[in-house]
Protein 1
Amino acid sequence: MIKIFAAFAILTVMISTVSVYKLKQATYDLEETKRAISAQILKDREAIKVLKAEMAYLSRPERLERLSRRHLVLDAPETGQLAVNLAGLTVRDNVQMINMPVDNFQLLLPRQKPNPMKARRVSETITVARVRADHIEPAIKADKPSKIVEQHSLFDRILAKIGN
Amino acid sequence: MKPIDLRVEGTRQGAIEVARNRLIFVMALFAMGFLTLVVKLISVGVFQAHSSTYYQTVSANTSLLMARADIVDRNGVILATNLKTPSLAVVPGKLKTSPEELAEKIASIFPSLSYDQSLEILSTKRSHKWIKRTLTPRQVFEIKKIGDPGLVTSDAEKRIYPHGRLVSHVLGSVDDDNKPSSGVEAFFNDQLIDPLKSENSLVLSIDIRMQHILNQELAAYKEKFYALGAAGIILDVTNGEVLALSSLPDFDPNDTDGPQNLDEMNKVLQGVYELGSGFKTFTIASALDNKVVDISDGYDATKPVKVAGFTIRDDHPKARWLNVPEIFVYSSNIGTLKMAQDIGVERQKAFFEKLGLFKKTDIEVYGKSAPLLPKQWGPTELATTAYGHGIAVTPLHLASGVAAMVNGGRLNPATLLRKDTSHIESATLISSNEVTSNVAPQVISPDTSEIMRNLLHLVVEFGTGKNAKVDGYLIGGKTGTAIKPYKNKRGYNDKAVISSFISVFPIDKPKYLVFAMLDEPQGIKETFNLISGGMTAAPMVGNIIRRVGPLVGIVPTKQKEFDYEDLMLVSGTRK
């Protein structure tokens, strides 16, 4: 009896020792991983800082302005291009605003027939984007062949008419 | 099978006994040894904690990464940040190659170092000497390629200002050891280097887009009029936040450690100038608020006035009786000084003091200038201060004061910190209760403020500030043209002026104040050689408003009628 008990006790001690050791080792490994991860986080955070600084450097207003002038056919907005609400966009006097129950979107209701005179005035006030000369040139070049083709076809037609 | 019971008797029995005893003794020893091992194993496994060395390394790394908190603008755009940059040093004791050979290689890697310079550094007697800070990755690669153990690269932190010169006067700069020299870097140094707060950024009230617009226009007009310098500020009149602050010439905080000479000082905060007619805003507000004059009252401005031996003239003489709006709109020195004489020295002084013109501004920068005040207040001083001479203040004094004239009469101290930082993540470096002081003091009544708004508007519609007009916006403003005193002798130089324009928009509901000034502009053909504020600074401010307005979403208005317009006797026709 005492032998069995002793054997059991020894076995228990051995098993528990091994398991405690393994647990300890697992914890150590985890902490090792954690250390690696926090080192990586630090590295990443540093990289993010660098990227943020670079972002700020690359999006300097002065640079954006320069790039926009070179690549976009856009100009700074002018006061004439701003409208408070939809009513401000029209030259009509009698504009009634209603509130749509669904989305509360303000809708313009025309109260009179469109007036061609006023309509022309509106079209005159539309701001035409100022296009830099170097942007216009390709457009003109692209236009030219088509015009020639058109003239050519007209000439053809006249020739054809005379021929007939 | 039964075990055989073997028994040895006689003399041999004693020998076996001895052997057995010895065996038991050895076994006991072994058992004890194993027991010790088991106990030790358990104690190591269960009770002993890890050594904590790597925690220290990690935290040391963190503090190295974040030695100084970031500074961001009101929208979270980075204005200043710390980056790790490698630096190169020499440890002469470890050098394997001769200094001459090394110096040649190093000089070829760094264009800024000559052979002689690098040789001098390499042959140092000290045990460690810096060769070069902030290396590029390519330079680091080249140094590693040399492979000498005596050349040591180490990571150091460098303060980086991505926007370069743009915000230099607000930010200030730091030296090689990250010690700040000026600007908010110096003022908030304690908070910026606090390790507990290093993750949070300092949110300024500056808007980098407005700063760019202001800077660009100032630079353009400084060049156009061949001015010595230019300065400007955009202020939120409702709470005193500084949205843009620029002073030219400026400096690059990435290269230099703060302003290098007097020209590069911050003209808005450190320069004190006699700012001229902008002060008429204060005199008239004081007269109206003290009920000395009524809006329809007036003064005779037909002839120049003599005060204590000096003759005071109008720059834009009308040579007739002028009412209060006309005095302001045509910037009449005579009318204003007569008004000041009615106000009296005591009330005028008290009013200036209330506006904070007698002390330094509260803005968060060290080295602000105190105003230069008259030594004694006699009739001459009363007369000259009425139109902004004989008293020199910083442009910020004038801007804060005019902001109080239009915003309903409350004097908000100007601040460089954004008051509401709730929308920016990790922005609690300085909590808002440190910034928001008590309620801003009321310096004039809301009614007087209402009148001042209308008067300022009339100046831009009819008066000296016409050149600042912007289609669709209601702008109020006041020109200022002040002659500068000679540097080394008494008296004033008529040729050298400070031309300024202070403006508020939209004037019906004031939100932004724009102040711009040119230091000694030269006349050009386009302006008929005129260098007054209305010809030089006003169009510049008009341009700024034209660009800033749509940016911040100020809605254009179609209003064409103004109060007190009927009081004006206007020559010519309005469009």
Protein 2
Amino acid sequence: MAYNQTVSFDKIKHKKKMATEDIIFTILNTTFLVLFAVVTLYPVLNTLAYSFNEGNDAVRGGIYLLPRKWSLRSYHEILFERPGIRTGAWITFWRTVLGTLTSLAANALLSFILSRKKFLFKSGLSLFWVITMYASGGMIPVLVLFRYLHLTSSFWVYIIPGMVSAFNVMVMRTYMAGIPDSLEEAAQLEGAGYMRVFVSIITPLCKPVYATIALFVAVYHWNAWFDAMLYNRFDPQYTTLQYELMKLLDSVSATTGTSSGAQMSQSAAAATITPMTVRAAATIATMAPIIALYPFLQRYFVTGLTIGGVKE
Amino acid sequence: MENSIVKSKRTKEIDVNKPKFTAKEFKRQWILVAISAVYVIYGIIFYYLPLAGWIIAFQNFVFAKGIGGSKWVGIDKFKFLFSDKTFLMVIRNTFVMGVLNLFFSTVVAIAFAILLNEVKNRYFKKSIQTISYLPHFLSWIIVVAIVHDALTSTGIINDILTRLHILKQPYAFLGDPKLFWGIVTLSHLWKETGWNAIIYLAAITSIDPCLYESASIDGAGRFQKMRYVTLPGLRPTIMILLLMNMGNVLNAGFELQYLLGNGLVQNVSRTIDIYILDWALDARNMDYSLGTAAGIFKTVVSMTFIVVSNYIAKKKGDERLF
Amino acid sequence: MKTKKIVSLILASMLAVSSFAACSTKPTDTQSSGGNEPVQTGDGKEIVDFTMFAAMAGKEKNDGNEIMELIAEKTGVRVKETWLTGQDAGEAIGSIIASGKLPDLIDGGDGSVTLYQNGLLVAWDDYLEKYPNLKEMYTDEEWDKFRMDDGHIYWANVFGNSYDHNTATGHNGEAFWIQVRVLEWANYPKIQTLDEYFKLLEDYAAANPELPDGTPVIPYTCLCEDWKYYCLENAPMFLDGYPNDGCVIVNIDAGMDNPKVVDYNTTDTAKMYFKKLNEEYAKGAIDPDFATQTYDEYIAKLSTGRVLGLCDQYWDFAYNIMGPFATPLSASDGTTFRLDELGCDYVPLGLTAKAGMKQQWHSYDDELNQSSGCAVTTSCKDPDLAFAFLSALLDQDIHDLRFWGIEGVDYLVDDQGLYYRTEEMRENWKSDSYKAKHSCEYSYCPQWMGMSKDGINRMQPSEQPSEFYEGLAEPLKKCFAAYGAQTYSEFLGSEIVVNAPWYPLWSWSNNISSDTPGGIAWKRMGETKHLWLPTVVMSSDFESDWAAYQAAYAECDPQAFLDEAQAEVNKRLETAKSYGWTAPV
């Protein structure tokens, strides 16, 4: 108290103003974020509710936050009754692990090269990769190419073609470029080559961006199914988890189906619609592992890990 | 003569940082060059070779005959596209939805990341962030089902609005062409804001904390710190993402519009991808040539956007792609 | 430290999963390795594994499916079926061709012609002579309709093909459907026109606005989603008394050998029909969300039993609402009820533009769709075995296994040799998971409808009269009795006619390509109708919107399409004549 009295009146006023401003901001911000969370949480809870509901009952709709008629049937069906789920889980697991590691390494190395300010072919190589983001030969030429490279009917089609992603490289490059040159120069004075700089100086400082890209790539691999269908359609030993679930989820194909006026056979028509509950259960089952992985990565980009080491 | 001198001067000014190409420098960087070469070979095989497939846009491509045997039709496929009123309409739709989505998703994701960064309580911050990105994992089929459910005549939106006497009777939101783009943009925001914010959150961690400290010492308030420290710190990331996504405005999507659209709003809902599906990937008449022609058009436009915006960024001294 | 922890965690989980998967996937590995490598079975007989792709949505069978194994023992062939996922038929067929890896058997759906054009299919001709079971499926004239421009046959459509004669008990086609409780409430009146139909729906809804659980009723709804907008658009064709040619009316006023194609979109009946819908919409008798609802929402709505009437084809809605209709619900007064017992099942009404007209909503004969079917690909290493297998599938004992199941488990036989099922067996065959592990229809391979070769039973249980009748709920039986009908088709009471030689024309319009002016017009007409038909129904000024619609429609150049349709009718007529067809007097 005594100390406060000695501070000039002006400063107190200023501090008080700051404090109230702060409190109002915190309240507003918290309210906003909570509202935002509620709105984004709803679809997930809704899906969760459907997944635990009985199938015939769910068709009637009108389920919001809680199931109306509890049932574990849908989970039982997708996890234990579908052919290929186990093979799919196995393949998906491996492609996620291998794919993330190789892709992270490949992207990081390329980003490192492109972020070197003195690199002679910086612009050219950047342009070379930027183009790959927008120019695509389309599905058919790629298929034909993979066929000649013997990538179809193999596991490696999941790993090799998508290893380098220009988008991820650009994000990483930007981050790396933000790291002060002084560090690199100091190391080079001590005789460290480029690879030493990459491994022992840049990489430890890039944890947040590595975590981000790892998450992106892992989620991509975990969710991938289109490549499994396109390249390994008739090779069930290389199926992926998502492809197996997609076979259940898919209602798009049922609606694009054939054309007007046609009458389908009774047996064919009877088999089309997948119950909403099974779709919901498949969605939740897919989300769970990725959500479990998230907290391990989250610390790197939420808890404000600082690159204080940069400052000398 | 004079002109060229001026020109060379200017380039020199801009590329102050650019290293001189000398044998010595090349030797110093040999490892970088060698590794780059590997990447270039990889890129040529997996990205540039398939571009040879563009040839079929100038043919009436039939699988059985292959590229060698299919009939050449010159630019007929492009002529068909640009003489079709529907194609011009879908370009407009795709472009508008792409721009709306780019603008709002960027602004909202940045705002969300900054606001989240202001939260002091670690657990609150972590939980909010975890929740916010969850919808990213829902498929559009499920999200559209929920959006639909909310917007029907008995849905929650109509229910609230009629109870508040804002509407006298339920309004057919989904059948109104004027509302379609808004609904699409909001659905995107709903599903992807949390996910898009992840990159920005990671970028915020790279901002030197000393900057905040010195700003505080200078008497900067919270908003001033956001404005003068956080935002400039994010600037390179924002610019690079904006630049890249600029090339994606014509990839405004397929699934969402396809699932959310209906006969009444078809004139604003159909995108280029849906058009290709309708006209080129029709099982009865698989016209890969037409589909490829539309693909080439998209690529050309994207590259133009990228080059122009990259040039502007370069001029302004901002982060750029190449 | 943290990194170390994560790495060890990943390693640990890898180990756990790998040991788990290693022991669990081994047995299936040998089975699913695909290809044509023969696998030795217990008794030394070799079983060949084939793959099959159908460009349709469908459900995969479990590995080790019980009946699949039985059929494999008898035929030496096991087929792994794959269906369309996330692509449409065109994309799927295109990518299969490009990947160079084809299945052994394929139903290319709309992409069949592409497969043929690329020389990827094996001609049936020689094998037809070798395997009489297959040859027997169609007459020579019918087989000729399958011939492609090189003169060979590459596929056979497997559906709607009756052995002996068509024994359909149901009405699989289109109609204005109405809940039996509405008819019962009005004491089973005769309903012939749209006016009577909508009046009854309105009256009933006014008198009974809610279901026992408090759900408000919707008098009438209509699906407009994507290609299923036929629910809205093609009624004028039927209302004028014509059969389901799908794309046009074929007028035979000038005699059967002088057919004339007429556009049903511009007739007076069309205007009358849409004006009626417009009035009903204004009165609130039509679901306000009809124009924007998705198929899922539509089914959800029907499943609650609150929709009194609708226009649709049977297969499109009926199978998906059977389950919910048979599920007990609790009413607001605490009692339980079931929708089928309440009389929410639908019966078809054959409405016409004017009372007393004849109508052809139901088609009694088989409809031959030659545009796609089951085919053997050039990738199949042993085509002879593939055809032998397809032929064996038509042997009566195997056919019974496919559609009836195992005797004693899935059906019983009475003293007269008549097959029947118990309630439990019927429930089993409604369950997806039971079907996935037990039943094996090979539903896109050759099959019969109609009479069984034993002369007593039907080829498929759905057509067995006793099975059909036993499966009906009480109110439905009562309703049939009140109108003196035993089957849906009798209830509908369509005129019995022999199919015209060009019928059904939808087998042509479904496959029309956008290469020709007519094809482009057909596509544009569809787009225009998708926009304008719901608009005129919801319009507050019908006359001017109708005029605007007709103007927009005329801009699509429908005449180009009609000309090509006329040419196709003439062509089919000529073909029939060359086989000795003459116009009935």
Protein 3
Amino acid sequence: MITHEKEKLSEAFPDTYLTFQLNGSDLGFEARWLWEISLSVSVSPLPPSVPYLVGITHLHGKIVPVLDLPALLGLPVFISAPGKGFVAVKPPGGNAPTGFYVDGILGFEKFPKSGEQPQASPDAGLFRRGYADIAGRRVELLDMEWILSSLRLPLPAGTKPTPDIGG
Amino acid sequence: MSSQPIPKWLIENLSALAERAKAVKLENPENLRELLGEFEVWTVEAKGFCGPWVSTLSAQARQWLKGLEAGRPPIQGLERLLQGILEANAQLKKEVFQVKRGGAQEGTETFFFEAQAAPVEGPPVAAQEPPPQDAAGFPTSFVTLKPEDREGFKDFLQEAPGHLSDIETNLMGLSGQGTWDVMKIYRPFHTLKSLFAYLGFPHMSEEAHKAEALLEPYKSGKGRPAEPEREALLKTLDLFRRQVGLIAEGYLRGRIEIIPAKAQAQSMTSGPRPSPVVGPDAGSGEVREDFIRVDTAKMDGLLEAMEELAICHNQLAEAIRAQGPHSAPAEAVEKLGKLTRGLQDKILSVRMVPVEPLFKRLSRLVRDLVQKTGKTVQLRLEGASTELDKRLVDELWEPLVHLVRNAMDHGLEPMAKRLDAGKSAHGTLTVKAQHLGGDFVLEVADDGRGLNSSKIAEKAGRLGLLPPSSASSPQWVEDLVFRPGFSTASKVTDVSGRGVGLDVVKRRIQALKGSIHLESREGFGCRFIIRIPLTLALMEGVLLRVGRGLFLLPLTQVGRFWDMNADPGHDAPLTGEKNKVPPLLEEGTPGSGPSKSLPSRRIDLAVKFGESSERFRQPVGIEVGMGENRAFVLADEILGKKQVVLKGLSGVLEGFPSVNGAALLSDGRVSLVLDVPSLLRESALLEATG
């Protein structure tokens, strides 16, 4: 289990991003949102609620909701082995972690904000704030603040969950 | 006249005074004045415990002091008084011996509170003497410690230095440019305000209030107190330090000096702060004991870490068990399991404290109520050493006050009525704490008039609340008494008081995951029985599987289980009771008949998780709730009774209605913990009953 405290990371590694693979895409987000990376956690399923909430787990005594990130981001569905890593994020200074599976951790990348390219169009994908070219790879950068602030429960019975894109 | 045992401290104080009386120098009036002043205080305190000789001696001491003030030679009458002190000491020892021979019941403390001729109005305060003047010309006064107050002062002396230190640390941090949290200063001032008020230091409480008012504008998070304001707060801090020091100093003597009001009023004014703190340092008195104040958040963190360790152990044990029961690792893991459980018990025990302080506060409350109601009462306190989670002890105070007030106001009859009924002249109020079946059980009983069932039924009839059958059952009466507004709406004096606010008491107890029941016999009294878990850190519940999800229902809110697939008329095997199984109910549709009229709904829908596409077999029905507020919830499987640590939810999970938290299970899985009252309310299950 590798643990990184976000405060230390944001202080020691400004402009640092965690990059990972998920359903064939390379994704990343600012490391200051990172709470923990685990190789595996045991997730307890919840009764059907919303498609992007697959269950709950616990880390360091805290109950952590587990997101189905591909469903949330609208990534193409891949039939593959379960994720090889688990990432927990938490708002800087906040106390409410949220986690999701990833297919693999690519590593930490450092580049200035100016290295971020804006999205080509607003329809390029929900919860992305742009992309960066890193070593010839296109890494889509997630807007973690947008993601975490958009999660709402419960949805009225019978409605299909739609992320609150209005922020 | 007293059946109250003479406390040890009273005997020790008199023994010390007698020793000093032997060695007193007659030519030194100040020496004598001090000795007899203390003796007079002693006699006042001893009055409630000892025979009538105390009053005689007290009058002699007072007369001698008056004579001294009038310029009479100190030697006059002194010899007789000093001899009186020595005789008093001998008499006291004799009385103690008699009480011991009488064999007071172990763990039981009995207080006898006699009503004054006329009821006293106004808030309870510690007895204070007329204020003399100190050397600086400020009027000084003293608080005389009553036996029942001692525990409160002792707690205060343990707690106050920490609050003072918190204030100082955070006030000092204000001078820098770093971050500051106003609440870290505001909260300890607020706590000290309450503590001072409770202990009978209203002016100190007022000063704390002024400090709060000064900090109020900064609670929004904007700005920080300027230097003059910081100075004013530090002056208040110094004042409190000095008063706490005086309390520590006076605690053992039974007489505590109050800092003059004029000096107190100067604390929040501008101007330089007098440098060194005058008076003894806070907490430096002889009562100081070795305590470490630990933040409850740290304790919770320790418990959480412990819990994860236990889960890891269980998973490891499971993996090793698969290799064979007698392998070397299996033995080591078994030993590790024992150590883990032992450590867990020790961590939990740190949170446990005796309910004794609660009882001491109670005796003070009863003393005040006796003065207000004019009723003479014997208060029996049993099981003061019974331990309970500190937070629960604090939370129990208000419900307990409510029950005791009710018993004093409405349960116990006036003396004349008691005598007419062939009862003893004084009423008896018994408060008993004990551990029973893994729970903490508190009983509040009085030997008063009891509930008047016919008047309750009459009132219920007028309100259209008809009993389920022709005869009103004790359960129906109990439900009515705890019904919100039942007594408020009633003007029947004999019974109305028994219900005023009892719904609030019930809600408070339920919030502590507990239950309250009532036993009453008309003409003989009432007994309220409160049952709560020993700690809020742990809770017991029934684990259920619904589809793929796990839910835990608190054990206190679960009734019977029903096999919903069994044929009507078959016995339900789930509880081991001979319960008739009701026909399978359609969701949300009440059936017919008393036991079949409860509405039902599958748990995941009741919690409003959304629509499920999963097939649901509904093999088990669980009766939840209490009294009239009952319903069925449906689940796939009962996985057993579990003791778990309740954890709060945060973030997106906070959106689940009716979910009180989550629990880690021993195998590492996580279950949602449901709050039954809100589940019934939110899911409209109660509305479905019509």
